Amino acid sequence: MSKKIFTEKEIKLLSLNKYVKSVSPKGITYTNEFKHIFIGEKEKGKLTREIFEACGFDAEVLGTDRIYSASKRWKRAYEKEGVNGLRDTRTEKSGRSRERSLSLEEKNARLEAQINLLKAENELLKKIRYAERRMKK
User: Fold this and answer.
1) What is the average pLDDT across 79-87?
2) If residue 23 lies in a helix (H) or strand (E), which one and from where to where?
3) What angle do helix axes 32-43 and 64-81 make, rounded to 10 degrees?
4) In this model, does residue 96 exceed pLDDT 70?
5) C-alpha distances in angstroms, 3 versus 6, 30, 70?
6) Residue 3 has what DSSP assignment?
7) pLDDT at residue 1 is higher than 60
8) How far apart are CA 28 and CA 17, in angstroms?
9) Which class for 56: exposed (0-12), middle (13-18), buried (19 or more C-beta within 10 A)?
10) How crowded is residue 58: how many other Cβ atoms within 10 Å of its Cβ?
């Protein structure tokens, strides 16, 4: 991630671009459409900075590090997974995993683990009570 932090003015300027999904002071999320355009233009031999500027981005506002790291990340994802590698999957993979029904063996293992934990807690409490009784004497 780039160390450059966007000012309020820069955030407003960037958010007006149709290829920007969202902008915060620390980061920018580009649309999938822009990523496809970028890869297409890159394959034609255009320079990274030229592509960004042709799509309405100010290279000075974004910073060269952010531009080139995005380029590198998208090219690697495109080479590895094709067009699907360019998609933003954070919304699909965030949060807790879905609950699934457990088999009898899994339920049994969980219950045994819970029993062992309770036994260990009981033993600890016994030791504490024994130590307190000895302190009183």
Assistant:
1) 80
2) strand 20-23
3) 80
4) no
5) 10, 18, 14
6) S
7) no
8) 11
9) middle
10) 12
Report how far residue 11's alpha carbon sits from residue 6's, in angstroms, rounded to the nearest whole number. Answer: 6
Collapsing DSSP to helix, strand or coil, 25 comes out as coil
Rg (CA), the chain: 27
- pLDDT digits 0-9 by tens, 7-30: 999 999 999 999 999 999 998 989
For residue 48, give the amino acid letter: T
* Rounded (10°) CA dihedral 98, 29, 79, 46: 170
Q: Do residues 133 and 125 lie in contact, with contact meaning Cβ atoms separated by under 8 Å? A: no
Supply 11's token pair. Answer: 């955030």
Contact 13, 58 (CB under 8 A): yes
Helices (H), 18-103: 32-43, 48-54, 59-62, 64-81
The DSSP string of 29-49 is EE-HHHHHHHHHHHHTT--HH
What is the C-alpha to C-alpha distance for residues 13 and 69, in angstroms, rounded to an integer? Answer: 21
